[in-house]
Specification:
Layout: H1 3-12, H2 19-23, E1 26-36, E2 39-44, H3 45-58, E3 59-72, E4 75-86, E5 93-106, E6 109-118
Parallel strand pairs: 1-6
Antiparallel strand pairs: 1-2, 3-4, 4-5, 5-6
Length: about 120
């Protein structure tokens, strides 16, 4: 599987809201530098796992719609919109935010991430 296919598979899974699935994609030394609407956040393996656990308490389903994905060497750049369904209203899909992320892949895992997000 190419690194581009690997990243697509990651975003098509429920990994963003399921820490058990997420474990299979993260490198043990992963870091994510995230410029969000709340400012700059730097995350490591544990904080990414905790975020997935928090999201799983609020959302029953996660769906990512990728609009652009490009790979070169060990890097994959992806632009996507993240939709969720809440526990309170599982029939309604809600846009969480738009994201642009560059992932470096190492040992067939997500190793370094550089991400920007914007609420809709």
């Amino acid at each position: 599987m190419s690194i581009k296919e690997f990243v697509q598979k990651f975003y098509k899974s429920d990994a963003l809201i399921d820490s058990e699935i997420l474990k299979t994609y993260l490198h043990p030394d992963v870091t994510l530098e995230w410029n969000s609407s709340k400012g700059f956040i730097q995350m490591d393996y544990d904080s990414i796992m905790e975020m997935a656990n928090e999201l799983s308490r609020a959302y029953v389903r996660s769906k990512v719609r990728i609009s652009h994905i490009i790979s070169e060497d060990d890097l994959v750049s992806v632009r996507y919109s993240h939709f969720v369904k809440t526990i309170e209203n599982p029939r309604e899909e809600m846009l969480l935010a738009h994201f642009s992320t560059i992932w470096q892949i190492k040992d067939d895992k997500l190793y370094r991430g550089y991400q920007m997000s914007q609420f809709s």
